[in-house]
Give the backbone structure.
Amino acid sequence: MSALLEVEAVSRRFRGLLAVDAVSFGVDAGELFAVIGPNGAGKTTLFNLIAGALPPSAGTIRLAGERIDGLRPDAIAARGVGRTFQIVRPFPAMTVRENIMVGSLMRTPHAAAARAKADAVMERLGFAALADRPAASLTLPDRKRLEVARALATEPRLLLLDEVMAGLRPTEVDAMVATLRAINAEHGTTIVLIEHVMRAVMALAGRVLVLHHGARIALGTPAEVVAEPEVVRSYLGTGPVH
Amino acid sequence: MRWALGLALAGALLAAPLVAGRYELSVLILVFQFVLMGQAWNLMMGYAGQLSLGHALYVGLGAYVPALLWLHFGVSPLLGVFAGMAAAMLAGAAIGWLGLRFGIEGVYFALLTIAFAEITRVAFDHLPVTGGAGGLFLPVTPEGRAAWWMLDGGPVFFYYVTLALAAGATGVVAWLARSRMGFLWRAVRDDPVAAEALGVNLFRARMQAILVSSAMASVAGVVVAFYYRNLFPSQVFDMSRSIELILAPIIGGLGTVLGPVVGAALLTPAGEALAALVHRAGLDAPGVKAVAYGLLLIAVIWVRPSGIWPWLARRLGVS
């Protein structure tokens, strides 16, 4: 398998704070990859660097061999990177269907075709009943699902999911895990997810990157990283994994 | 039911000159002008979320350019309108480029639009070619020429011209609202960061809205020039014009197709009736309309902050 995403020695500095510290990793096409770490470890900043919301202070980011660091977010989205926001950002005055249509309009110039695609995405994520509701009226878990639906509608090669399971009940987590697995299997969509819900990480991810204070402290299979003493010390603690 | 209502309204509007007098027609012409200008502004603010308080600039350029072309070269305003449109779009592009290039957003962008309108007003006041502060007068065409081609006619003629323009503008907005561009504008309005992450080019989307809006506003200028047949920079480009034309869409409902129509249909006759009443009472109160508009605006924002049309549409079951 070839590397779809290559992150090389990427750093991001906010004044005195080094939020991301020379992080390197690669994600293969079709992989399910998780990024974990304590709050403030730099996970969301790393996503913002990949998606172009922030330029890196140093380092390079490649998508399928092409450098994307320094490009605008819409240019990176057009190259096949879909992302969700940890703090959800729905288009509040638009309906659920219209929100998703904005995503599908990137690949289809016609509103009618975009609408059909949005309906298909909604069907897949169990949204059909909410289609005509204004996004402002959704509950937080539904807004998280809307983030996923909107990003999926752009038909991404690489899907960046930022804590989309937070606030979901265990059964909902399992349903989301199953959906992401199916999307990955059917479309070969590469998925990188930031997640605190270890239940989802263990069930879904083939490999896990662990960040702490902006730096990479471990990278490997879920079983490998949870056995690393430094990961246990800085993030997981000594209690049971649930 | 909806179609019957629409057809009845269309029939009434088409037949109105048969029963309406000169005064009623002049009020209706004013309503249609405000529909046209309101729709233009509504596209930019209501759909794309960019506040312009300088739309008098586009209307004014749309008035002056065809008027000058007609006066000096005998160019028909039906052709001149496109030159006016080009001038307005050029001004819009300049404002948009500055705003977007330097990240001037929200109220600061609004200040930029005011500044451009004011600069143009002062410039036109002093340019000999525009007639300066003394104004520009458009004589009535000599007998025997094709009057409609030169946009010369009485109230009935202008009634139908402005009716067609208002209906056309509303149709364009209805079409744009369902188009790809309209969707992207609304996304940019609601959350530019999220829109950009979904592949929307913010610069392009905002610039498109400015260009379409300024072009549409400039068409209203042709009516201003050739119906009233005199132009003064101090009136045409005045800030109060920019404010007046945004009232109908705000009162009617921002970001809705029929909001500017409902707003103008309520606001303009109410203002004119009040002014007539005050005049008949023998009072000299030239500011009375502005005061009435202000009070109405406060009342609507208080009671129906999203405007009258969304509420009315729900009541009528047509939303």
Notes: Chain B has a mean pLDDT of 92. Chain B is about 75% helix and 0% strand.
